[in-house]
Design goal:
One of its GO terms (molecular function) is methyltransferase activity. This is Class I SAM-dependent methyltransferase. This protein is an alpha/beta fold and 239 residues long. It has a domain of 163 residues: Rossmann fold (3-Layer(aba) Sandwich), CATH 3.40.50.150. The chain has seven helices and seven strands, in the order ααβαβαββαβαβαβ. Strands 3-2-1-4-5-7-6 form a seven-stranded mixed sheet. Helix 4 links the parallel strand 2 and strand 3. The protein is globular and about 45 Å long.
């Protein structure tokens, strides 16, 4: 996989030590599910058996399971799965967490009615995306629905994870059928300035446009990035 599994595992392993509170969480750990995922769940977007692919620290999985859904969360980083399991236990919520390669998803064929990707797709390279799209299609039952959230292209060229509409439409192909493609806000654990420094450091730039200053932020100053929300489904009647 082009997604940096070793780097993700290193970040999780260094940050989330058993029995110790993380001093500085990873940028996507807001300590809660993504608000837009909560809103989707409240609107009935998830049904049946749910796969949270690239589940990370498990907050979305836990929130969905708390609504009575049967949830499986998979991630390539063992330390993330360990932390997600501990968080689910602390909430008293049953979630099946497992380490799995999202590009393969071996052993998960024809099991899920809804698939959530909240922030994994934009971590994959173009060469891995076709295999990933095929893998989640195999994991879905007839009529399964996909909710995919990926960073949009409002940020400057060269920003890691920046996805265009053309990229999404060229990769999310048969057997998937796209129903909707809209934008939403993805909350980060970083302030606007922290986000600016992080993204510029990743892109190798020294300075950037004022787009970072224009980002929305919550009451704690944590910035939101603009993301795509793609909804697609597999052929069939479903459950």
């Amino acid at each position: 996989m082009t997604v940096a599994r070793t780097n993700f595992e290193q970040a999780y392993k260094q940050t989330y030590q058993p029995g110790r509170t993380a001093e500085r969480p990873v940028p996507w750990d807001i300590g809660a599910p993504q608000p837009e995922v909560v809103a989707l769940a409240a609107a009935g977007a998830f049904r049946g058996a749910v796969l949270d692919v690239g589940c990370g620290l498990g907050e979305n999985s836990i929130a969905l399971a708390a609504r009575g859904l049967r949830v499986t969360g998979v991630d390539g980083a063992p330390s993330a799965i360990r932390e997600a399991t501990a968080r689910a236990a602390s909430h008293g919520v049953a979630v099946t967490f497992a380490v799995a390669d999202a590009v393969v998803l071996e052993g998960y064929d024809n099991q899920f009615d809804t698939i959530l990707d909240s922030g994994l797709y934009h971590c994959l390279g173009d060469e891995d995306r076709p295999a990933y799209v095929a893998a989640i299609a195999r994991a879905g039952r007839p009529g399964a629905r996909l909710h995919l959230i990926a960073f949009a292209d409002e940020l400057p060229d060269g920003t890691p994870g920046r996805i265009t509409e053309e990229q999404l439409r060229s990769h999310i192909v048969a057997p998937w059928m796209i129903d909707e493609l809209t934008r939403l806000k993805y909350k980060t654990a970083l302030t606007r300035e922290q986000l600016r420094r992080t993204i510029l450091a990743s892109s190798g730039e020294q300075d950037g446009p004022d787009v970072f200053d224009q980002l929305d932020a919550d009451e704690q100053g944590r910035a939101y990035l603009v993301a795509w929300h793609l909804v697609a489904h597999l052929p069939g009647d479903g459950a």
